[in-house]
Amino acid sequence: MDKSPQFTSQDFASRQIGHLGLVAGMIDELGISAVIDEALPKTRDHILPHSKVVSAMLLNGLGFNERRLYFFSRFFTNLSTEQLFGPGVTPEHLNDDVLLRTLDRIYDYGTTDLFNRIVMNVMKKFQFGTHLLHADTTSFSVHGDYDNEEENFRNIQITYGHNKDLRWDLKQFVLSMVTNQHGIPLFTQPYSGNESDKKILLETIQKVKQNLNLEDKAYYVADSAFYTGPNLQTLGHHTFWISHPPATIDEVKLLLVADMPMVPGEEEGYSSYERLVNYAGIEQKWVLVHSEKRRAASEKTYQKNLDNRLEKARKSLKKLRSKEFACEPDAQMAARLWFDDYPYLSSDKIQILSRTKKNNGKKGRPGKDESVVTVYSVDAPIEIIPEVIEQEKTRLGRFVLATNDLDLEADSLLKYYKGQQSVERGFRFLKDKSFRVAEVFLKKESRIEALSMIMVLCLFVYAIAEWYLRSKLKETGKKVNNQLKKPIQNPTMKWIFTLFMRPAEVTVCLNSHIQRFIVNLDEDVTQILEIMGPSFEKYYFVKPTCEM
Fold first, then answer.
1. Would you list the DSSP string of 112-132?
2. What is the pLDDT of residues 496-508, one digit of tens each?
3. Contact 256, 400 (CB under 8 A)
């Protein structure tokens, strides 16, 4: 007779932990909850402190399962909330009302102020570097009308503006962010959807200087939107910046096509030429950079683009030929203006044609006594100007970088600017559909502002976790296997999250005794947890419990 225990669905339960224990461990390691508790103290009508709700939002945002914050309460239904948040915390405690109440408190405190407070506290413990500060902006589309009815001058305005995702049909807000060289966000602030990048980037740099109290030499890196005369003059000589002067500046245009003695750089495939210039009254160094890789990529598309430009020009010329002008000078002026729009085209013979037509506008040959008028039109065979095309090709693979640090070498300048990809990667992370951090369905501008801070805080936790693990791997000399089973020391946190898909909490009720286990801890998971340390291990390495 079989005497083995017989289990029913009521005797057995399984709840997921997955990679969320890593997220919770990073939150603990960074001391985020203590900062939140101090800034947003719990009131009597709150079952959970705001720190728990913020942690829940971070776990939701980094859930890696394409669930939006819009489905906040539903997200925790099958998760081990007690293991992740503490005894007595159930999914029912993490409902939409709790979420919205915490967002309101974050807004009341000040979203940027709270984020700065968290960053400053973390920087006391972790030395992840602030030598390079990459500033950029992006837009986030929102769904709904958003008539900006909230009577609060502090609110951002949800409105139409330059949408970087080409969603012209949706209103938006703009998010400014600064990351360090590791992609760790150090500053963020939301702006109205129609704010100018030129203004935002200047304000961002000024606020970072004011809020972070950086003692070491730092470079503020920003794209061409930052590079304006007023912005450079405002920062002066004591704030070091690196930027990309727009190609619309005459001096830049000339430099891009100039025959200069290019010097090979430290990085293969790059060469450069340095020049000291004075622009907008600011002494600075311009570096003309040539990239062979960039040139090769550009050449592949140049001919196709040229063919498209020629086709567009032919269609435009056809329209010009069909136009009628009242006098010959008007026709000549129209021809000149047309060729001004197409500087790579010329004509060896521009003809101004004339003909008579009925004054009443009717078709057909004019009768003997009918009134007629003379009209003029343009005709011109066109051809490409080879010199202009060659000049355009010369620019392929070239760009100009600028800095007000006259001692900064060209190789370092290029290396630092290429790090601008770190903030761009951060924005891509926020918009990544696998995380869906940036899905915005809230109905109040103030709550959207608060949510934008939570979005960047998700990136903050993720980026530091990645930096933290890589640092630990280098420190210990250990490696983890990538997707191809190759041992590496620079894994992405997204890959690590994938390795942690299976861990779960299992509870078994046997003879009125409840036993609790953490299962599916394979060798890769165990090794990573041991490397990352106790703050992370506690969410997975729990002793089996026995409760009555």
1. HHHHHHHHHHHHTT-----SE
2. 999 999 999 888 8
3. yes
CA distances from 515 to 4, 367, 538, 542 (A): 17, 108, 18, 12
Max CA pair span of the chain: 123
Strand, helix or coil for residue 303: helix
Same domain? 404 vs 257: yes
Cα dihedral 169, 174, 178, 182 in deg (nearest 10): -30
* Owning domain of residue 324: 305-390
The pLDDT of residue 393: 79
Residues 345, 238: one domain?
Answer: no
The DSSP annotation for 432-448 comes to -TTT-TT----S-HHHH
Nearest partner of 202 among 233, 160, 180, judged by Cα: 233
Helix (H, G, I), strand (E, B) or coil at 382: coil
CA–CA gap between residue 176 and residue 166 (Å, rounded): 18
Q: Please state the domain count of the chain.
A: 2
* CATH at 265: 3.90.350.10
- Is residue 327 within 8 Å of residue 425, measured between CB atoms? no
Give yes or no: residues 140 and 247 share one domain: yes
Using an 8 Å Cβ cutoff, are 414 and 272 in contact? yes
In a domain, 139, yes or no: yes
Give me the helices (H) in 178-327, please.
Answer: 197-212, 229-235, 250-257, 292-322
Residue 488 belongs to a domain: no
Task: Judge if 288 and 204 occupy the same domain.
Answer: yes
Q: And the tokens for 350?
A: 């521009």
Query: How many other CB atoms sit within 10 Å of the CB of residue 149?
Result: 9
213-238, pLDDT tens digit by residue? 776 789 999 999 999 999 999 999 88
- Residues 279 and 164 occupy one common structural domain: yes
Is 155 inside any structural domain? Answer: yes
Last residue of some domain: 334, 369, 390?
Answer: 390
**358 exposure class (CB count in 10 Å sphere: 0-12, 13-18, 19+):** middle
Asked if pLDDT for residue 544 goes beyond 60, the answer is no
CA distance 187 to 73: 29
| Cα(459)–Cα(456) distance, integer angstroms | 5
pLDDT over threshold 60, residue 472: yes
- Contact 429/459 with Cβ under 8 angstroms? yes
- List the strands of the sheet with 504-510, edge to edge: 12-16, 504-510, 513-519, 545-547
In a domain, 501, yes or no: no
Residues 6+ positions from 231 with CB-CB distance below 8 Å: 198, 201, 202
Shared domain for 353 and 423, answered yes or no, is: no
pTM: 0.82
Q: Are residues 167 and 285 in the same domain?
A: yes
Q: Quick check: helix, strand or coil at residue 218?
A: coil
178 and 258 inside one domain: yes
